[in-house]
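ok new one. same drill as before - structure tokens go in, u give me an amino acid for every spot. 417 of them this time. try not to just spam alanines like last time pls lmao
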């Protein structure tokens, strides 16, 4: 299969020019190895043979020999390499020496230096609709951030098409695979994650039944501010007694293998006396994992409008994270004690920001527009954080347009970087 360009491909050359080593991290099967190989001149895969792990322990310099940039794939299997590579970067005094790719973050310990100044980190997420070729990209997030006045485009995806993409997910290895086979692969992915990946990659001793129930609870609560208490009630609904502390360990492990990526609340200066809520929203790294956890296919998802709305919001968050990464933007959500909620706020290092409401259909478009305008006009102290670069409602509808208020309406299948 020919390599399909990713948004992160635009970022890697700059990171290699700035750092001695680049860590490319993300969920298993997100395509890290294939992407890293596009930017490396030699490589070693530590998961290819147990003997390589022995070499990494006994003679790590042999692992690092080769043309640069040299890819060390699944480096976390030999975490001692971190300090070896750090010292090698210091010794060579050159940029772009190594790419480290991995699908889990090893435990931090006192023997591992932070890598500050030597290592740059890049997150590779599953593919956005634009990257899989399902979005035209006619509406550019970068152009919205730059202050695009008006938008106009037509989506090529129907309502059911969007459900199909939500269930399939953005996994590169499933491109071109029949829908039934993709659903089976995603179910198997979750099984492996629960039975094998957590205990091996994250060094967590766990009860697979309890972890599965937690994953199912996260799937039911996707795109919501689920608290540990409600997750514990879900997990223990069969009479179990898993403690909240244990669930936090499981959640931490799921984050460390990049299966779960919470969406934090926005901490911003307010002009009103409203108080911000601080609970993060629940998201899997790809909405297909939520569907797989609950055994939801495209037809069932399309019929369940309420749940599809949550899954669609999670898909939008995935895509916006991918697109915003080009300018190192971070994705948050907003909620205050007055009940005002905005699904997505993107904040950029230079201080710019934009806000997005997500609506599966357009029946509540006026409500979404009102929430965005209230956030910008009444809640945020724009004297401190500036006016929003854009306000937008992202939908599964057909036509992109700009409302008289200046709020953009953007079908997800027209959005791109």
């Amino acid at each position: 299969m020919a390599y399909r360009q990713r948004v992160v491909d635009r970022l890697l050359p700059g990171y290699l020019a700035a750092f001695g080593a680049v860590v490319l991290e993300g969920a298993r099967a997100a395509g890290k190895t294939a992407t890293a190989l596009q930017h490396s001149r030699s490589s070693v895969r530590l998961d290819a043979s147990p003997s390589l792990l022995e070499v990494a322990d006994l003679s790590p310099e042999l692992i690092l020999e080769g043309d640069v940039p040299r890819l060390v794939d699944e480096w976390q299997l030999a975490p001692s390499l971190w300090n070896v590579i750090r010292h090698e970067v210091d010794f060579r005094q050159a940029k772009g020496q190594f790419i480290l790719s991995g699908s889990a973050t090893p435990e931090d310990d006192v023997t591992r230096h932070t890598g500050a100044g030597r290592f740059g980190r890049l997150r590779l997420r599953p593919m956005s609709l634009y990257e899989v070729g399902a979005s035209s990209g006619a509406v550019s997030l970068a152009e919205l951030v730059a202050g695009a006045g008006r938008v106009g485009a037509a989506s090529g995806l129907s309502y059911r098409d969007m459900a199909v993409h939500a269930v399939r997910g953005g996994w590169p290895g499933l491109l071109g695979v029949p829908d039934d086979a993709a659903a089976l692969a995603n179910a198997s992915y979750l099984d492996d994650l629960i039975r094998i990946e957590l205990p091996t990659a994250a060094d967590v001793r766990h009860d697979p039944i309890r972890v599965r129930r937690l994953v199912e609870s996260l799937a039911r609560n996707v795109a919501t501010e689920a608290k540990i208490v409600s997750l514990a009630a879900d997990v223990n609904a069969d009479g179990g007694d898993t403690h909240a502390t244990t669930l936090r360990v499981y959640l931490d492990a799921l984050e460390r293998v990049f299966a779960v990526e919470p969406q934090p609340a926005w901490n911003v200066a307010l002009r009103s006396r409203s108080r911000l809520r601080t609970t993060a929203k629940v998201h899997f790294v790809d909405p297909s994992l939520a569907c797989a956890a609950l055994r939801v296919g495209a037809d069932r998802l399309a019929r369940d409008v309420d749940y599809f709305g949550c899954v669609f919001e999670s898909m939008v968050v995935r895509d916006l994270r991918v697109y915003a990464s080009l300018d190192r933007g971070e994705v948050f959500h907003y909620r205050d004690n007055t009940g005002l909620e905005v699904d997505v706020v993107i904040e950029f290092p230079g201080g710019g920001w934009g806000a997005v409401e997500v609506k599966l259909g357009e029946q509540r478009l006026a409500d979404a527009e009102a929430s965005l305008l209230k956030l910008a006009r009444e809640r945020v102290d724009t004297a401190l954080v500036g006016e929003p670069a854009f306000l937008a409602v992202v939908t599964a509808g057909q036509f992109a347009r700009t409302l008289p208020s200046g709020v953009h309406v953007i079908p997800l299948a027209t959005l791109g970087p």
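The chain has a mean pLDDT of 94. and btw The chain is about 40% helix and 15% strand.
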